[in-house]
Amino acid sequence: MTGYEKHKDDILRRLRRIEGQVRGLQRMVERDTYCIDVLTQVSATNAALQSCALALLDEHLSCCVTEAIGHGGDRAREKVTEASRAIARLVRS
């Protein structure tokens, strides 16, 4: 079971919207759109990806990590470490 199972449709909707934004970026470059306008859309796409990543992280913490902590032991420590590393990756990006 994935942590985002209850919100899978929302996550997929977000990802499809992002996919559309990327296709729009490709069209903008093909049409020689002004650089700043392309960069503005790149920024919007990055923000959408960040928002999606945060939603997934929230679901992971609320479900997977919380459940593992409830059971305790090595599995709990592994899930907390895994979440910490994911957060570090997001912060660096």
UniProtKB/TrEMBL annotation:
Superkingdom of source: Bacteria
Listed transmembrane segments: none
Keywords: Copper
Cross-referenced InterPro entries: Metal_Tscrpt_repr (IPR003735), Metal_Tscrpt_repr_sf (IPR038390)
Family according to the record: Belongs to the CsoR family.
Protein name according to UniProt: Metal-sensitive transcriptional regulator
Organism of origin: Streptomyces chitinivorans
